[in-house]
Structure formats: C-alpha cells, structure tokens
Fold this protein.
Amino acid sequence: MKQSVKKVLALLLAMAMLIGFTACGKDEKSSAASGEESLASSSASSKPFDNTLSEPESKPEEPVEAPELAGTVTEKSTAVNPDIVGYLQIPGTDIDEPVVQTYDNKTYMRLNYEGKYDFQGSYWVDYECSVGDRTDMSRNTIIYGHNTAVTADDPNGLDFAQLLRFTDKKFAEEHPYIYFSTGEEDMVWEVFAVFYTDLNFRYHTMIDSNISTLISGAQERSEFDYDVAVDASTDKVLTLSTCTAKYGYRNGASLARFVVMARLVEQGAELDNSVTVSVNTDKKTPNL
C-alpha cells in the first residue's frame, strides 16, 4: 500500500514538471506581452526600480607633456653652430629642428642650421628679435621658413609647407601647441590665429611695439576663431611666417604669406589635449 502511494505521488510530480516545461516553450512575443500586462497591473503596488550600480567613471585624458629642448639648443650651439639660438617642434608635422639667428634675414635662406648650403634653407629668427628666456624674449618673436611646396601649397611638402595643416579644422583642434625653446628655457606656445595675409599687414615689423594691433589683426584674418584668450598688454607672441601660392605671384615672388601665431603659455600651466575652434565666417582676406 505504501509503495502504491509513492508511485501515485511520483506520477503526479512528473506530470507537474511536464506542464512546467511545456509552458516555457510558449511564443516569446506572447510571453513578453503577458509579462508587460502583469507589470502594468501591479505597477501601483510595486517598488520603483532602484539602480544601485554607479555609472562607470570616464577616464580623464592624460595632460600633454611638453618636450625638453633647451639642452639640445645648448649642445647644438656649442658643437655645431653658434648661430643656433633655439629649437622648434610642432606636433603633427616634421618640423623638428634647431633654429638659427644672425645679423640679417638673408644668410640662412639657402643654408641649413649647420651653416652648409641647402636649397631648402633653415628656420631662422628675425635678426631684430631678442632671444633668451621668457623675460628676454621680444614681445613678438618671428621665425621664417620656406614653403618648399609653394607652387601647390601642399601641406605634406617640406619645411614650413606643413604649417598649412593648420588650415584643417580637425588638425587645428587637435594640435593646440607649438614648442619653441631657447638654451635658457623650455617654452610652450598656444596657437590663437592661422591666416593668409598681404604684406600691408606688417606683422614682421611689430616686434616690440603695436602688439595690440598685431594680435587683433591676426585674429580678424584667422581662418578660425580660437577659444584662446590673449592679453595684448602682457602676452608674448610667436609668429611663424612662410610664403603661399594661394594668391599667386608677381615677378616670381609670392604675393601673400601664411602665418601661424601663438601666445607664450605661463610656466607650470597644465596643457590640454585640444582646443575649441570655429570657422571664422567673416575673416579679412588679403587685399591684392
């Protein structure tokens, strides 16, 4: 008798399990619909969902580390050429070389920084500029270089042809700094204007005077409006200047110049990975 009861109970249990498995095989859409109806009917009494998991923290971008170039200037000046007064490095380009200065702006047009003949010339500081630590630097330090792709303005050309990469908005946003150091100090410069200009804008003569005119003139000509504050009363400026084919030639000479201008960053300032720029829709264009 006990065995018969056990068999009956086992049979009932098996039937219950079979019914349960059959229910799991229902169409998923109808199951979901019935589940939504059940949730809706019980929403008045159910406890609101409480997410106890915190959102993953976004990993902050690593601050930019400025290169140490002052030692290279001293070394190259002693071992290679005493006319070497600085070192210029621009991320995102091949511009990474010593800079010279002498008694005029012609000598190094066809000499490299070692003082040897080179058609591409070198990067040289205007002879009227003062070069030293941030205290000694002129208010506007001008560096010239050739655009050796001048017939096509190819930003992949050699030397200062690559400054033209700053006319690309994405490049400009992702490359906010220029590094120009002297033997006395490593210095970081923050770009605030990139522009084409005729020579009536005499930025190359505004070295220790008319700095307000220099800065406002650069900004109104700039391809982009940079989210960079520049103080005309205190900031020191770095000007990189080259020729451009964009506006043609006269008697074999380029009629316009392409210029990148930057402000000297305060010592110890944290460097961001990017800068906000917007297209300057009413920029002043060369008057030729």
The radius of gyration is 34 Å. The chain has two domains: 2-39, 71-279.
